[in-house]
Design goal:
4 domains; three-stranded antiparallel sheet; two-stranded parallel ribbon; Rossmann fold; binds glutamic acid; mainly alpha; Helicase, Ruva Protein, domain 3
C-alpha cells in the first residue's frame, strides 16, 4: 500500500511553527517511501476558522519548501481538501453508525448538560456525558426528535476494559475506556466534530500513517473506536512530541515566538528553520547537524523520531541560521536581503557590502542596523565614546588629524590604508587598535563593524574624510 500521510491544521490565527514541524516529518516520510503528503484544512470550527489563516498556512509551507502533493490549492484525486466543502459527506456516516448500534441520537439540552457537569464537579468526578439518551428506548428519543427537539449524534464508548494501541514513538499506549466520553460526532447544525470528520477523511483519503502532535493522543481511543465500528482499517499511529519552551511547557507565544510569519519577518532562512526543526525531533547518524531535506530523507524513519520533548532553543536556531547564511553566495545573499532593505539601494554598493557583513548577520533583518553607515550621508556618534577612557579629547583630535593627513594622499584600498594607519600608530607610539577605534567610530558611528579599512574602502574616500574631519572638529573646533 503506498504511504499516504497528511497534516490537518485548523485555520485559526497565525501559522504555527508546530504545523511546520509535523509537516516536515510527514513529508519526509512520504518522500522516503515514494508516497504522498497531503494538506487538509480542518475548518469545521466555523467561529474560529478564517480564510486569511488558511492563506497563511499555504504561504508559510511554501516558504519553507514543505510542499504537498495534494491540498485545497493544488487539488488531487481525493478532494475536496477543505472540510467545510465536505460537510455533505459526514452525516450519512454518523447515521450509519446509529443504524449499526454504535452511535445514538441525543436530545439533551444545554441546561441539562450543564446541570450534569455541575453535579459531577461537586462530586469531584471528571466531567463527561452521563449516558442519559444512550439508555433511553430509541422510540422515545425518536418521538422527541419528531416533535422538533434539536439532536446530536454521539458515539457509544465502552464503559469497561482498556483501549490498547501501538504508537510508533511511544510503544504501547493504554487508556481505560471509562475515561473516554461518548463523543459527539455530528452537531445539531449537521456539521461534524473534529473526531468524526478527521477519521472519515483519513479513511476516504487513504491515509496510512497518522503522524501528528502528541496532544492528540488522548483523542486516539475515540478514533480507534470509530475505525472499529466503521469496519475500516486504522492507520499507523505516530504521535510526535510537542515542541517545548525552555521551562518544558508546551511551546506558547508568551514564551517563544510561535508564528511562522515572525520567523520569516525576522529573516530566518527557511532552509535553516527546516533543518532546525528536523534536529528537534530526529538525530542523524554521527551527530550530523547541518543537513538538507534530501539528506534527511535518506536516514529518516518514523521509528527514529525522538521521544523526548524537544526544547525550542533560539540560540541554536540562530547558530543554524548563521550556518546557512555563510553558505550562500554573496549574490544569493544580496537577493535574500532584498526585502530587508537591500532592494532599492544601489546594487553595486550592496554587492560590495554583502561580503563584509555575511559573517556578522544573525538574521536578514540585521541588514539595516549593520549597514546604515554605508548608505547615510553623515553619521552620529557620542564624543565621549569617541574619546574613550584612556585618552583625552585633544589627543583623540590629534590622532584623527594625523589619520586625515595620511589618508588624503593614500590610494583608496584597504591594504594601502591599513599600511599607512599602522605607520601613524607606530609614530605615535600607540597600539594600532587605539588609533583604529576612534577612526571606526568617526567613520561609522559604531564601535563594532566589519574590518575597518575594508569598510572605509567601500564607504569611499570623500565620505570617510568628511566624517573624520567632522569628528575632529567636534573635539577641537578650529
Ligand atoms: N485539526 C487538528 C489540528 O489542528 C488535526 C489533528 C490531527 O492531525 O489529527 O492539528
Amino acid at each position: 500500500m503506498p504511504v499516504r500521510v497528511r497534516i490537518a491544521p485548523s485555520p485559526t490565527g497565525d501559522p504555527h511553527v508546530g504545523t511546520a514541524y509535523v509537516a516536515l516529518f510527514n513529508r519526509t516520510w512520504a518522500r522516503r517511501n515514494g508516497g504522498q503528503f497531503l494538506l487538509r484544512i480542518e475548518d469545521t470550527d466555523r467561529a474560529r476558522s478564517n480564510p486569511e489563516s488558511e492563506r497563511m498556512i499555504f504561504e508559510s509551507l511554501k516558504w519553507l519548501g514543505l510542499t504537498y502533493d495534494e491540498g485545497p490549492d493544488v487539488g488531487g484525486p481525493t478532494g475536496p481538501y477543505r472540510q467545510s466543502e465536505r460537510v455533505s459527506i459526514y452525516p450519512k456516516h454518523a447515521k450509519d453508525l446509529v443504524e449499526k448500534g454504535a452511535a445514538y441520537y441525543c436530545t439533551c439540552t444545554a441546561d441539562r448538560l450543564e446541570a450534569v457537569r455541575k453535579a459531577q464537579s461537586a462530586a469531584k468526578l471528571a466531567p463527561r456525558y452521563d449516558g442519559h439518551c444512550r439508555n433511553l428506548p430509541p422510540a422515545e428519543v425518536k418521538k422527541q426528535i419528531d416533535a422538533g427537539a434539536p439532536w446530536v449524534i454521539r458515539l457509544k464508548v465502552a464503559n469497561e476494559g482498556e483501549c490498547r494501541f501501538k504508537d510508533v514513538v511511544r510503544g504501547e499506549v493504554v487508556f481505560a475506556w471509562d475515561q473516554i466520553d461518548d463523543q459527539i460526532l455530528l452537531k445539531s447544525d449537521g456539521w461534524p466534530t473534529y473526531h468524526l470528520a478527521n477519521v472519515v477523511d483519513d479513511h476516504l483519503m487513504g491515509i496510512t500513517h497518522v503522524i501528528r502532535a502528541e496532544e492528540w493522543i488522548s483523542s486516539t481511543p475515540k478514533h480507534i473506536k470509530l475505525y472499529e465500528v466503521f469496519g475500516w482499517e486504522p492507520p499507523v499511529w505516530c504521535h510526535v512530541p510537542l515542541l517545548r519552551n525552555k521551562d518544558k511547557s508546551k511551546i506558547s507565544k508568551r514564551k517563544n515566538p510561535t508564528s511562522l510569519n515572525w520567523y520569516r519577518d525576522q529573516g530566518y532562512l527557511p532552509e535553516a528553520l527546516v533543518n532546525f526543526l528536523g534536529l528537534m525531533g530526529f538525530s542523524m547518524p554521527a551527530g550530523l547537524e547541518v543537513y538538507s531535506p534530501a539528506e534527511m530523507e535518506k536516514e529518516f524513519t518514523i521509528e527514529k523520531i525522538n521521544a523526548g520533548g524537544p526544547v525550542f532553543d533560539m540560540q541554536k536556531l540562530d547558530w543554524m541560521n548563521g550556518q546557512y547564511m555563510r553558505k550562500l553566495s554573496a549574490e544569493e545573499l544580496a537577493k535574500r536581503l532584498g526585502p530587508f532593505g537591500a532592494a532599492g539601494k544601489d546594487p553595486a554598493l550592496v554587492k560590495r557590502i554583502v561580503p563584509l557583513i555575511q559573517d556578522r548577520l544573525r538574521v536578514l533583518s540585521d541588514f539595516g542596523e549593520l549597514t546604515s553607515f554605508f548608505f547615510a550621508e553623515t553619521v552620529e556618534h557620542d564624543p565621549a565614546v569617541l574619546v574613550g577612557k584612556k585618552s583625552t579629547a585633544a589627543e583623540t583630535a590629534s590622532l584623527l588629524a594625523a589619520a586625515v593627513e595620511v589618508l588624503k594622499s593614500c590610494e583608496w584600498t584597504a591594504a594601502a590604508m591599513e599600511g599607512k594607519l599602522r605607520e601613524v600608530a607606530t609614530s605615535k607610539n600607540i597600539k594600532p587598535g587605539d588609533l583604529f577605534m576612534p577612526i571606526r567610530i568617526a567613520v561609522t558611528g559604531k564601535a563594532a563593524t566589519p574590518p575597518l579599512t575594508e569598510t572605509m574602502e567601500v564607504i569611499g574616500k570623500e565620505k570617510c574624510l568628511a566624517r573624520l574631519e567632522a569628528a575632529r572638529k567636534r573635539l577641537s573646533p578650529g
